[in-house]
Amino acid sequence: MIEDDKRTSIYLRRGLTEAGHVVDTIHDGRTGLAMALEGIYHALVIDRSLPGMDGLEVVRALRSKDQSVPILMLSAKASTEQRVEGFQAGCDAYLGKPYAFVEVLARLETLLRPSTPAPGNKPGQMQIGELQLDSTQHLAIRQGHRIPLGPRETLILEKLMLHPDQIVTRLMLLESAWDYDFDPNDNVIDKHIHRLRRKLDDGFDVSLIVTVPGAGYRLEIPEGIHGSTNQVSSMEKDSG
Q1: Are 140 and 132 in contact (CB under 8 A)?
Q2: In Å, how far are 80, 160, 184, 207 from 190, measured between CA atoms?
Q3: How far apart are CA 61 and CA 82, in angstroms?
Q4: Which of 5, 91, 116, 230 is the most buried (most CB within 10 A)?
Q5: Distance between CA atoms of 17 and 9, rounded to whole angstroms?
Q6: For the chain, how far is it from start to end, CA to CA, in angstroms?
Q7: Stronger pLDDT, 223 or 11, i.e. the higher one
């Protein structure tokens, strides 16, 4: 989120975090553009009037670099002409101030929703062998057993499932589930992994998350039941 009004950014960040999103906040256009160009964000919320570099300039610069990340622009300038100018710059949604937080959240989550999900599949769902994840519901399913997860547990498991049978470092997990301003202690990741592993392995003999000493963690699915690695897939038959 690139928003120079700190009171507004605190308000939006708190609400989005409570809704399960990980949010980085920047207060000027040039720094925001530099971070956006890292290509690690699922969506951007950009204020139109920014110091250093106008919000429309940020959007145009991103689009000129073929960055297709969804962009929601917030602005006190909300006439028809100004909205059109925002869309022509490359915004995907444009919301005029004042606004209700629920409207910001609804617009953002609409942008995050894939427009053309594969037939039979649902947005936000992944499956690797016996393990399924519905990130929108904070729910894992292992061999039909439904496992409620916390928001950060969901983000950590999602990162592990995106890299099956590969080492995922603690730094990678921190970047996935916490924002830049978070100052972690030495064992915050270990504590969350411990809770996640306890939930996933309850009632099973084989642990899915393996600790790689000195490196990080790896998601290992037992042989013989591997499925698609990072495909979104339907969970209806298991959740019914």
Answers
A1: yes
A2: 51, 14, 11, 15
A3: 18
A4: 91
A5: 12
A6: 38
A7: 11
Q: Measure the CA–CA gap between 156 and 126, rounded to whole angstroms.
A: 13
- Decide: 16 and 9 in contact? Cβ < 8 Å: no
Helix or strand (DSSP H, E) at 103: helix 101-112
Name the amino acid, one letter, at 23.
V
- Chain position carrying tokens 């290992």: 220
Residue with tokens 């915050």: 188
Q: How many CA atoms lie within 13 A of 211 on its CB side?
A: 10
Domains of the chain: 6-112 (3.40.50.2300), 125-239 (1.10.10.10)
In 3-state terms, what secondary structure has residue 55? helix
Q: Which residues contact 163 (CB under 8 A, 6 or more apart)?
A: 219
pTM: 0.56
Which residues are bridge partners to 216 per DSSP?
169, 212
Rounded Cα distance, 148 and 54, in Å: 42
H or E stretch at 95: strand 93-96
Classified as helix, coil or strand, 31 is: helix
What's the confidence (pLDDT) of residue 80?
Answer: 87
